Amino acid sequence: xxxxxxxxxxxxxxxxxxxxxxxxxxxxxxxxxxxxxxxxxxxxxxxxxxxxxxxxxxxxxxxxxxxxxxxxxxxxxxxxxxxxxxxxxxxxxxxxxxxxxxxxxxxxxxxxxxxxxxxxxxxxxxxxxxxxxxxxxxxxxxxxxxxxxxxxxxxxxxxxxxxxxxxxxxxxxxxxxxxxxxxxxxxxxxxxxxxxxxxxxxxxxxxxxxxxxxxxxxxxxxxxxxxxx
Length: 229
Known about the structure:
Layout: E1 14-19, H1 30-46, E2 49-56, E3 60-67, H2 72-92, E4 104-107, H3 110-122, H4 124-127, H5 142-145, H6 158-161, H7 167-180, H8 184-196, H9 203-210
Antiparallel strand pairs: 1-3, 1-4, 2-3
Protein name: Transposase IS200-like domain-containing protein
InterPro entries: Transposase_17, Transposase_17_sf
Pfam family, one: Y1_Tnp
């Protein structure tokens, strides 16, 4: 069976995961992390992709983005991946593949999952036991959102701006949201949807999404939920 093309729709939030082949290290030094972030800034601007959140781990990275065009996200990821592999292979004196095949991604319903996805991304280093608090990990967008640094790569989503009327109020509300954590059901839903490529959202959202693309967006035929008697 031919594999489905990735689900990519302009104007919608997408959660993206790119893993190292066989979970191998893809960032061996701080310079590697910074080089990928520099590439991300370059290609996000070139291909019109808004970067809302990110985290770079040792063997993979997560992005939360909104592409402005239908091809913006795949073009950005292709350019980013190819150029980073050349850099990393030269730096490590290695050859061959670096990534675990194609990047994984899905469309998420912003109103229901965007802030949860941001917390999911921020808490990755904590879940992995790398740091006690998300602000202790230098290679994520968390510090930007809680007012510890200004990150020019980050373009906050409208839902973040709704957290408060002042920068301090937004930062405090977001810090509290992340400290509260993400419930296991949401965490698993975000992981499963991204790895499978099926859209994540309520039935009406999925139904509306299906009308905007010929590519299937869910495992079963999208349809409106039956009305309760």
